[in-house]
Every structure is written in C-alpha cells, then in structure tokens.
Recover the amino acids of this structure.
C-alpha cells in the first residue's frame, strides 16, 4: 500500500521476506543498459523448496538520497541474487529525482521502502536495521551493487557462513570486490587480506570494501546503531571497534560487490571535512595507545603544511618528501611499521 506519511512509504508484507523474482518477472531495463544486472543474470543453485526455511534470513538495507541514476542497478543486483529468504529494505531521504518512481516499479519485491526526510546516511541505515528481522546483515549504498551470485558465494564458505549464522557470538566477514567508474567500467580490484593482517592494520587504513562486508545480528546489537555525527568514517569506525573487542572476523577471496567512484559521492566531495573527521575518529578509538595517538596527531599536523609546501599532492617534491617523512615518523614511532605509517599518511591526505 502506498500513502502519505510525511512522504511515501510501502508497508511490508507478511512474512517479512519475499520469494526471489525471476529475471523475466522484473521490469525491463532502461534503454542502453546491458550486462549484469540488466540483461544478464546467473541462475542461483537449486534449492529444495521443503528446506528453504532452513536458510537464515539475510537483511540488506539500502540508504538512498538523490541517486536516481544508480539505484535501479543496486536494486536489481540484490533481487537477482535468487536468495530464498531475503529481506530488502530501502530508506530514501526524500529524493526529488526519479528514485521514487523506480522504487514503485520494484515494490512487489522490496520488503519495505520509504522516501521521507532523514538525518543523513547513518540515520537511514539505523532506521532500516531497526525494522529488520534478519540474522545476516549488510547495507548496500544506492550507488553500489552486489556481483552475480554474491550471497551464495558467501554461503559456500562453511566457516564464514557459520560465523554469520552464529546467534551468540558477534562476527563479520570481509569479501573482495571492485571499484568502477560511473559507467560501471572496472577501475581497480579490492582484494582481502588475512584476518590477522586486517586486525593489525585496521587503525592505519580501511582494508575492507564496505558493500562486500557482512555481519551477524549479534554484531549489530553490540556495536550499533551508528553515531549520527559521523558522515565519512562510520563504516571504518565500526570495523575498528569490532577488532578492538576481539570479535570474530573472516576474510574471503571471492568477489562479492562493486562500488562506484563518481564526482557526486561523499568520499570525492568531502575533502577537508573528511580528513578532519578521520583524524578525530582515530583519536577517539586509540584505546589508550599513546604512541598511536601521537602518530595520528603528527600526521594530521603534517598534512596542514606538507602538501602546500610541496606545491600539491602529485609533484615530484611531494613524492620524495613523503618518502622522507615516512622514514622520519617511523624512527620516531618505533612500534609501528613503515608500511603502517605510509598507509596512515595516505588515508589522512598527507
């Protein structure tokens, strides 16, 4: 049912999840759209209908705002996974572009959607998970998408699937993925590292690709909801806190998701506020490690004069100067590796 309640919404059916649609059942793709998930699909493995209820419910939340040019790709990539117990929730912040028209087209296969003003991306995700019932969770931004067969690749790894299905112990699973441009052309691949490397290096750079990272219900119950004051680093901060608590983590080499890089995304437009938020977030999560906190402060101060002194981030002077600064900082902070210093300088824009 559609109606007005300070915006548009679609009431969820009972049960909370719907049967996966066939490729032919979905609306036809817009003109010029080809490949996955428009004109190509990967048939899911055969599932015994009598045992479909044994699969844990997977909840995916899509926060959205003015991404009408991308969100249909996101929706189709999730619905065409063919997963038998999918709970899909879309929380749009009141977009005035074509987003609502697209959501209305896919209403029969979306558990719940709304298009009302919110307090930002974190608020949308928090509200979506508050409505959810699934055991395995993720959020897929409205300009990202799942790759073919992602959910069944996840299920095929017995250890990862058991960690996500565990109702008592919090845990998360980081998969591989790819970065692509606004047209979907792959730009780079994002490979996973060993769990021990992820835990050791999580404070020096984000080694996860968010849409390829899933977690269980207990994980969210212990670490959520997101802090609404964070706009750029809330996912990274979530993984840092999880690792600090010793929560179970597994890393999969399988490619599960893709993230778009385009001029309108927050990581491209944030600039200085993003670097400031990163440094403040890292300091809040230093956990009493005074040497690490000192390194973060040193890199943050370095950024304020180093790049202008070098005449820009891509000059030859900056290249050689960064090499020298990494060496000097590593000698000053001896309990961190040169690679960790380099990663921290890179992500903080120094």
């Amino acid at each position: 049912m559609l109606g007005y309640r300070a915006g548009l919404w679609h009431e969820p059916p009972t049960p909370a999840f719907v049967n996966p649609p066939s490729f032919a059942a979905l609306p036809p793709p817009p003109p010029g759209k080809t490949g996955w998930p428009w004109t190509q699909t990967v048939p899911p493995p055969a599932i015994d209908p009598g045992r479909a209820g044994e699969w844990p419910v997977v909840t995916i939340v899509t926060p959205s705002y003015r991404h009408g040019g991308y969100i249909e790709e996101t929706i189709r990539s999730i619905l065409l996974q063919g997963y038998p117990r999918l709970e899909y929730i879309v929380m749009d912040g009141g977009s005035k572009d074509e987003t609502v028209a697209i959501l209305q087209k896919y209403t029969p296969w979306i558990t719940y959607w709304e298009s009302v003003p919110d307090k930002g991306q974190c608020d949308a995700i928090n509200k979506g998970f508050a409505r959810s019932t699934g055991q395995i969770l993720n959020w897929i931004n409205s300009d990202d998408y799942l790759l073919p067969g992602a959910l069944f690749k996840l299920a095929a790894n017995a250890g990862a699937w058991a960690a996500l299905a565990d109702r008592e112990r919090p845990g998360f699973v980081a998969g591989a993925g790819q970065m692509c441009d606004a047209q979907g052309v792959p730009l780079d691949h994002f490979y996973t590292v060993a769990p021990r490397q992820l835990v050791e290096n999580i404070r020096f750079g984000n080694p996860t690709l968010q849409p390829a990272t899933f977690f269980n219900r207990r994980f969210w119950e212990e670490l959520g909801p997101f802090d609404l004051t964070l706009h750029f680093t809330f996912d990274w901060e979530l993984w840092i806190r999880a690792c600090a608590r010793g929560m179970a983590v597994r890393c999969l080499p399988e490619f599960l998701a893709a993230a778009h890089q385009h001029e309108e995304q927050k990581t491209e437009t944030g600039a200085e506020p993003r670097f400031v938020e990163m440094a403040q977030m890292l300091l809040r999560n230093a956990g009493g490690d005074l040497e690490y906190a000192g390194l973060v402060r040193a890199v943050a101060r370095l950024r304020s004069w180093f790049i202008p002194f070098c005449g820009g981030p891509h000059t030859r002077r900056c290249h050689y100067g960064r090499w020298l600064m990494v060496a000097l900082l590593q000698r000053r902070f001896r309990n961190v590796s040169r690679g960790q210093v380099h990663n921290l300088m890179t992500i903080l824009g120094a």
Summary: The mean pLDDT is 91. Residues 132 and 142 are 18 Å apart (CA to CA).
